Each structure stands twice: as structure tokens, then as C-alpha cells.
Amino acid sequence: MAVDDGHAAGTRDAGPVEIAIERLEGDEVASRWEWRLSAHEAGLTDLLSAAALVGYRFEKLVLFIMQPEVVALGLELSPAVQAALPRLVRRMAGELGAWGVSLQRIQQPENPPAASGR
């Protein structure tokens, strides 16, 4: 949950703070977005509603979310969110491991191809 302390998200007087990662499970996922703030949230709630309409019930549903450091148009992640990604991946891998899913680390290319923007 966001807390308005009078500072920009991800910052305080002493400098940048760690971006919070929140775990939502089951009904918490849909109830979290009773009020939609972005197109991403609308898409998620619409997907869950469509699944329910056709009788599909997720056996297990977990969503990890991060509060952005900056809410603005752009293509790049903020430095604080970029720094939080390894923690997010570890938490997601731990969750999947608890479900019995085995993961394998793959080597990322040093110079990955640039996105085409399409």
C-alpha cells in the first residue's frame, strides 16, 4: 500500500529507498483493483472477469507488484525499479519453487538485440 509522506515515490530526505514488492494471492488480486488507476490494471481485472464468465477458476493465483518510483510516460525503468528487479525475480522463483516448479538459470547475452518498438 502506498504511503504519502510528502516525498516522491522511492525517495526520502536521506536519498533513494528500496522499492517495496507486494505479494497478492487469490481474491486479493481482483479486490485490490476495485478502482482502476491504469490500463494495465483494467486489463488484469477484465481478464479475471472473462475467465470467471466462462467458468474458469484459477487453482492458484499469485501476483507480485511493485510501486513505481516515477509515474510518467517513458520506456525506461527508473534506477530504483531496475535495482529491485533481482529481488522480484528471486521472490517469484521462490514462489514457483514452492509450487514444485524447477527453474534453470540461463545466461543472458552480453549485448542483447534492441527492441524493434513494434
Taking the sheet with the most strands, its summary is: 2 strands, antiparallel
CATH fold assignment? Rossmann fold
Helix-strand sequence: EEEHHEH
Give the class-level CATH name. Answer: Alpha Beta
**Mean model confidence by pLDDT:** 78
Strand content: 5-15%
Terminal residue distance:
34 Å
- What spatial order of strands do you see in the largest sheet? 1-2
Number of strands: 4
Q: Globular, elongated, flat, extended or rod-shaped: what is the shape?
A: globular
What this model shows, in words?
The chain has 118 residues and is α+β, with helices and mostly antiparallel strands. The protein has one domain (14-98): HybD-like (Rossmann fold), CATH 3.40.50.1450. It has helices spanning 27-32, 39-53, 79-98; strands at residues 11-12, 15-16, 21-25, 62-66. The strands form 2 sheets. A two-stranded antiparallel sheet has the order 1-2. The longest helix is centred in the last third of the chain and has 20 residues, at 79-98.
Protein traits:
118 residues, 35% helix, two-stranded antiparallel ribbon, single chain, Rossmann fold, globular, alpha+beta
Quick description:
The protein has about 120 residues and is α+β, with helices and mostly antiparallel strands.
List the helices and strands and how they pair.
Blueprint: E1 11-12, E2 15-16, E3 21-25, H1 27-32, H2 39-53, E4 62-66, H3 79-98
Antiparallel strand pairs: 1-2, 3-4
